[in-house]
Amino acid sequence: MSTLYVVKIGGNIIDDEKKLSSFLKDFAAVKGHKILIHGGGKLATKLAEQMNIPQQMIDGRRITDAETLKVVTMVYAGYINKNIVAQLQANNCNAIGLSGADGNVILAHKRNHPTIDYGFAGDVDAINTTLLKSILDQQVSVVMAPITHDQKGQLLNTNADTIAQEVANALSSLYDVQLIYSFEKSGVLLDANDDSTVISSINPSYYQQLKSEQKIFAGMIPKLDNAFAALNKGVKKVIIGKAEQLTDLITGKAGTSIVHE
Amino acid sequence: MSTLYVVKIGGNIIDDEKKLSSFLKDFAAVKGHKILIHGGGKLATKLAEQMNIPQQMIDGRRITDAETLKVVTMVYAGYINKNIVAQLQANNCNAIGLSGADGNVILAHKRNHPTIDYGFAGDVDAINTTLLKSILDQQVSVVMAPITHDQKGQLLNTNADTIAQEVANALSSLYDVQLIYSFEKSGVLLDANDDSTVISSINPSYYQQLKSEQKIFAGMIPKLDNAFAALNKGVKKVIIGKAEQLTDLITGKAGTSIVHE
What we know:
Chain A is α/β, with parallel strands linked by helices. Chain A has helices at residues 11-14, 17-29, 43-50, 66-90, 129-136, 160-171, 204-212, 221-232, 246-251, and strands spanning 3-9, 33-38, 57-58, 61-62, 95-98, 106-110, 122-127, 141-144, 147-149, 155-157, 176-183, 201-202, 237-242, 256-258. Chains A, B: Pathway: Amino-acid biosynthesis; L-arginine biosynthesis; N(2)-acetyl-L-ornithine from L-glutamate: step 2/4.
């Protein structure tokens, strides 16, 4: 099977024009099949302010009312997605920008939480791998916006990390998938305040050891649990590190690789 | 060759939620390959007002400065495009929404006018038929937003009528293309004020006769000239009529068909 890179970039890159442009140049240069999944950044919040739409957050999550859904659809699936695609084209990387509604690529349902009404937030049900494969096999990269749909006409705001993981899991039957999560730090650190203490590779037994020695920063544990879950679903490797180091993340010269035993 | 319907809908349908929903139900029911091209409607103007971006019009054309480009990218390629796709999915019509940057489907250049600076307005150079064909042949319909790109990273605001014509022309080597332009009237009328005087079919010699007898409303002449130009480039039939009558436009029971001799 050929290799597929599924790369998630966070809002800190989206919000910084220079960093984004440099990242896209690196992404364009990566050889082989690739999917880029982007979050939202601060643009949606800024547009909501300009439009006088109050933003409600519960536990750090945005509550997506009807007006906010309109804003995130415009910003994520419109402005950010199309500008990323145009920049990739300028770097000789043919790319196609999709929401989950396009080609029914990501089917989701409105979140049903017992106590909190998250509004039009979507939880993923299924990935349509056929269309994705046909696009990738034409040497066209895919750029995914974190908007899905329920096949009943409703668009839904969906967590980009979750989309990355679901897409990586689903495509691991067709490709050797490497899932790359970019964030602010250089990788998983032994000392949370020292970027030079990156652990280059973690397998399940080393993870157990690090956890029992309480050497893993608590905030990293859900990320790592998700990474190991992805490996169990067929993903070959999960890499966590800085978007600015994409090339080195792929060659293993930077970041933390989460691998099988 | 199989038939491909290229359907352009105007802003009057986009702006009317009920009319749009009813049109999309009809569009979903059309058998065979199909592409929907949508304009913008009043939503972009409204958003620009909310964002305090002054809109400059010259001869009925919007001047696309950088801030306005951001607005139309969000509204056309984001909000309108994704909502149309989600509604088609709800009607069991698998569809994919694209801008011209996606898959490099429509390459354009910034308009270079001797006296007027239209800003980021694009004139079409080329259509990438390979990717469009591969999507259509998977029984997936295409929904095109009137945003193109120049392959140098610049998105461009582009006239939707022009996109419809260019897409129809380019695909006429691969499909029997029927190009359907929807507008406010029921078709080409003998009496501009009487919707019951629709001319059902016009061929080149009848067009010459109607023009010499001054029976064609002056405003229709550019539309008809474009329709005959499309026929000369390989399009099989051009139909002009009301979006509300899509089904009857296709079967020839409504609207005006512009056909070869």
